[in-house]
């Protein structure tokens, strides 16, 4: 599962044909997805090593990443057909390598190994951002590399602090997740606190939590839509998984009160920053970046509320990932048809691209938490958790910020889809094709399904993850 | 043993300040390379017995931090034909003073920290913290892309020093993974720098401002 995509990446780097090479993506994705489903259905058949274990939260993230990649890979084939003038060798190889490395992140139960893998995803994705080779994309890549590397370096320091916390307490220093978790109560408190802050800042940078979000609008604004979808649904989920690990250790150490305050603050702050910048945003791809920051805020907030909100948080990983697929891919189509991402030029997408335009609108409704879509259920569950936990101020702010985001995002989205398309874009060659539209429709279908009915196996997995996080086997 | 170790660590601290205070990027690169060599010796001194993993780690640290990465940076410098960091955000003298304050702070702060028994005699923890802080100063106060990369490298060196305290927790393979990530990271960054240089005909990150609100 880990090696297959990496091997395919090497093959992709070797295949000479620009036309055939993208087809390696769906092949790998289908195999990866099939393996994922198989592993999820028959967990007893899994081969586990001491460092590589698939635990319940890992299962959810793996499912999201694998599903997202599966449909995105078909989209990529369609997308790259429009970009035949440019060699896609590096693009395909990096995308495949990235899938393999994300699988390592999900499986790894050694915090050092996990760090190595997350840093590797940063490096693997840098060439993806640079695909368009414009001055803007260089700038975005540079900011991504610098902010991301420094953030992730802090996470490494935090990882070391965590190991030192056990050394200082007179235990054998270890970074194997199970061992740390077992001795969590004995860890040296000051070092644990320092480790938590550094890890939250470090992996929070990768997730795009405010105020470490500065790379996000730049990167999401410049990347091809499909890379944006994989970033917003995949990379961020992996980084969130890393934060869940340290959360669980702190929880077992009895430090809930300490970390909860910080998570709540980060969550609400991210939502507020996203809301502020989303109002009067003229670039619809940057708007999606702020939307992603907002949803990372929601995830962290859910973790901070804890207990009753955890189920919603786990579900939100899934719904957010799928909805981001809809939004980024349809936004990519609109961008392609208009050749611009400013709302001054892009309007009337509903007429110009009936399918992508309406999917973009539906995706917007879904991501802002309107029924009957998936995110509504998960956001409602988090809100419900906040109320039942007696956190009325938090819940109130949460609702208020959701409203601000809805208004801010709505203004931009409506400008894009409504009205009449300007004359000059009527004749651009792009039309919705099977490969670029069908994956978006499928994502939308999943989002709608999750809003109406959560399949029993999935809700079982979600409940397992909640129990696992709370330390109840 | 401890004396020798502390001598090395103090040398590293002095090198930090030198890196902050000089404008010639080539000289800074050499200093950082020399720092890499010293870092390679630390595992040999920290560990009581010279077993294979320790030797491997020392060899990897020296070859990557002291030879490979500096040579990539020197090549990038040559391609871009730049020699000096012009006008950093904070002047060279003030940044030395800032670095000295950070070092003093780290020494004082580490004295307050609850450390494990035998770590009080060595300067490992304060040096690690000071080096991370100096790396940060270098990273935020310089405008040339390549100087920022060097700042990042100094920051990583600080983290490496801290990892010397944790022998059991970081198995060789993970340590190697960290090194590899660092190497590839710098490699990719230098490629991007080269492209920045071609696209903007300068390596000044102040040119990278077209994406903003």
Describe, in plain words, how this protein is organized in 3D:
By secondary structure, chain A is mostly helical. Chain A contains 19 helices and no strands. Chain A has helices spanning 3-14, 24-41, 56-82, 89-107, 111-129, 135-168, 177-182, 189-207, 215-222, 225-252, 256-278, 284-305, 310-338, 349-352, 354-367, 374-388, 392-417, 434-452, 456-470. Chain B has one domain. Chain B contains 7 helices and no strands. The longest helix of chain B is centred in the first third of the chain and has 29 residues, at 52-80. Chain B is globular and about 50 Å long. Chain A binds chain B through residues 110, 112-113, 115-116, 119-120, 122-123, 126-127, 130, 133, 135-136, 138-143, 145-146, 149-150, 153, 156-157, 160, 163-164, 166-168, 170, 172-175, 188, 190-191, 217-218, 221-222, 277, and chain B through 113-116, 132, 139, 145, 148, 152, 155-156, 159, 162-163, 165-171, 174-175, 177-178, 180-181, 184-185, 188-189, 192-193, 195-196, 199-200, 205, 208, 210-211, 213.
SSE series of chain A? HHHHHHHHHHHHHHHHHHH
Mean pLDDT of chain A: 87
Query: Which radius of gyration of chain B do the C-alpha atoms yield?
Result: 18 Å
Spans where pLDDT lies below 50 across 5 or more residues of chain B: none
Termini of chain B, distance in Å? Answer: 55 Å
Strand content of chain B: under 5%
Please tell me the overall pLDDT of chain B. Answer: 85
Instruction: Work out the oligomeric state of the chains in this entry.
Output: heterodimer
Number of domains of chain B: 1
């Amino acid at each position: 599962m880990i090696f297959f995509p990496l091997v395919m990446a090497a093959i992709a780097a070797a295949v000479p044909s620009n036309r055939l090479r993208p087809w390696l993506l769906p092949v790998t994705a289908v195999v990866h997805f099939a393996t994922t489903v198989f592993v999820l259905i028959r967990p007893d058949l899994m081969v586990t090593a001491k460092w590589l274990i698939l635990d319940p939260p890992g299962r959810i993230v793996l499912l999201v990443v694998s599903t997202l990649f599966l449909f995105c890979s078909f989209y990529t084939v369609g997308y790259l057909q429009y970009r035949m003038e440019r060699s896609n060798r590096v693009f395909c190889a990096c995308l495949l390598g990235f899938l393999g490395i994300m699988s390592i992140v999900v499986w790894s139960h050694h915090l050092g190994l996990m760090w190595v893998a997350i840093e590797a995803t940063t490096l693997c994705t840098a060439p993806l951002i640079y695909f368009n080779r414009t001055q803007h994309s260089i700038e975005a890549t540079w900011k991504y590399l610098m902010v991301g590397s420094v953030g992730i370096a802090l996470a490494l320091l935090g990882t070391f602090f965590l190991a030192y916390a056990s050394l200082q307490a007179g235990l054998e220093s270890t970074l194997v997740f199970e061992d740390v978790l077992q001795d969590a109560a004995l860890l040296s408190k000051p070092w644990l606190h320092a480790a938590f802050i550094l890890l939250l800042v470090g992996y929070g940078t990768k997730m795009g939590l405010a105020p470490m979000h500065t790379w996000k609008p730049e990167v999401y604004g410049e990347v091809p839509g499909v890379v944006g979808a994989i970033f917003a649904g995949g990379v961020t989920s992996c980084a969130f998984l890393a934060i869940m690990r340290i959360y669980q250790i702190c929880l077992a150490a009895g430090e809930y009160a300490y970390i909860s305050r910080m998570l709540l603050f980060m969550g609400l702050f991210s939502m507020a920053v996203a809301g502020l910048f989303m109002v009067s945003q003229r670039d619809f791809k940057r708007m999606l970046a702020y939307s992603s920051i907002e949803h990372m805020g929601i995830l962290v907030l859910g973790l901070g509320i804890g207990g009753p909100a955890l189920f919603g948080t786990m579900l939100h990983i899934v719904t957010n990932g799928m909805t981001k697929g809809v939004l980024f891919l349809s936004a990519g189509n609109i961008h392609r048809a208009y050749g611009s991402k400013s709302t001054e030029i892009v309007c009337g997408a509903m007429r110009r691209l009936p399918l992508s335009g309406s999917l973009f609108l539906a995706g917007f409704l879904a991501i802002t938490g309107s029924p009957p879509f998936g995110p509504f259920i998960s956001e409602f569950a988090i809100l419900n958790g906040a109320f039942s936990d007696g956190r009325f101020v938090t819940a109130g702010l949460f609702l208020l910020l959701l409203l601000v985001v809805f208004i801010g995002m709505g203004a931009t989205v409506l400008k894009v889809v409504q009205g009449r398309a300007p004359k000059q874009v009527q004749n651009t060659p792009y039309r919705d094709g099977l490969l670029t539209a069908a994956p978006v429709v499928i994502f939308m279908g999943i989002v709608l399904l999750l809003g109406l009915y959560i399949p029993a196996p999935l809700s079982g997995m979600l409940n397992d993850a909640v129990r696992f996080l709370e330390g109840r086997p | 043993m401890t004396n020798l170790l502390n001598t090395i660590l103090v040398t590293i601290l002095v090198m930090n300040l030198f890196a902050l205070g000089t404008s010639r990027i080539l000289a800074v690169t050499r200093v950082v390379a020399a720092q890499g060599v010293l870092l390679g010796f630390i595992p040999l001194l920290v560990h009581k017995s010279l077993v294979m993993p320790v030797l491997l780690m020392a060899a990897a640290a020296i070859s990557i931090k002291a030879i490979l990465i500096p040579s990539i940076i020197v090549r990038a410098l040559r391609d871009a034909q730049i020699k000096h960091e012009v006008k950093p955000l904070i002047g060279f003298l003030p940044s030395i003073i800032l670095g000295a304050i950070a070092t003093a702070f780290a020494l004082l702060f580490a004295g307050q920290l609850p450390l494990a028994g035998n770590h009080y005699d060595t300067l490992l923890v304060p040096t690690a913290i000071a080096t991370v802080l100096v790396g940060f100063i270098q990273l935020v106060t310089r405008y040339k892309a390549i100087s920022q990369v060097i700042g990042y490298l100094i920051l990583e060196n600080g983290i490496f020093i801290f990892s010397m305290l944790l022998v059991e927790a970081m198995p060789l393979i993970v340590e190697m993974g960290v090194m590899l990530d660092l190497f590839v990271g710098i490699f990719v960054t230098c490629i991007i720098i080269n492209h920045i240089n071609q696209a903007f005909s300068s390596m000044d990150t102040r040119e990278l401002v077209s994406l903003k609100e």
